Amino acid sequence: MRQKRAKSYKRLVHQYVLHFQFREPFQVLIDNSFAESLVQYKLGNVLCVDKVKPMITQCCMVALYNAEKEAESEDKMRISQAIALAKQWERRKCNHREPLAPLACLEQVIGPTNKHRYMLAANEPPLRRALRRVVPGLPIVHYSQSVLVLEPMSDVTERYIATMEVNKSAISSTERKLLAQDTEAEASQPALQPVKRKRPKAPNPLSVKKPKNEKKAPKRAEPPTSTHTTAQQTSRRRKKRGRGSGAVEASHDTD
């Protein structure tokens, strides 16, 4: 299960890298609730990686200080550890003279398009829900029962990617200007006359050789008759003639 989750997270991060130009080290913007959960689940070393650059705003730090003042003894210890952990991260300047709520502060820092390519790490559901519906290309991370969860792409992000793909295949404004200039130049030029192509002519009949007469096939020679058979046939004919003449003479004698 853990391997499948890791593979799906890698594919999801690759989509952000491909479409929104995210680069390492990834800038992870952390709110006060996520800092407390890191201490609660004893996972403070999770963000100590070269591929991740943890950041926190001044307003979120003020929220941690206020929570420490209002907390009881057990919670106060946890929040003080979260403050000590947050001091190790880079401080993202939000330029708010008066501290705002973490939701309002992070909305202004991230902006409507997430221009600086932040990854948001927050455990507050209202904060995640508000930014997920509005900002495209914003990866959101939160803890669920000591398991780090990377939320799937929002509908806003998927629609933004679809429009980007359509715009890539469409003609840009500069290309339209070039096409308009080409059409104007072609219209100003005079029409060119079509070039006549030389076609092959028929050959001179006097220079063509006459077809030769085909040779007639020789007649087949009849097979030669043997002399023996011809001699037998002639002898038989003579005998028949002799018999006929003898019978005629005998009839004359009787008369």
TrEMBL record:
**GO CC terms in record:** small-subunit processome
**Does the keyword Nucleus feature in the UniProt annotation?**
yes
Q: Which UniProt keywords apply?
A: Nucleus
Q: Where is this region: Disordered?
A: 177-255
Regions of biased composition (Polar residues) lie at 225-234
Q: Which InterPro entries match?
A: Fcf1/UTP23, UTP23_sensor
Q: Which domain of life is it from?
A: Eukaryota
Every UTP23 sensor motif region domain range: 196-212
Q: What is this protein called?
A: UTP23 sensor motif region domain-containing protein
Q: What is the lineage of its organism?
A: Eukaryota, Fungi, Dikarya, Basidiomycota, Ustilaginomycotina
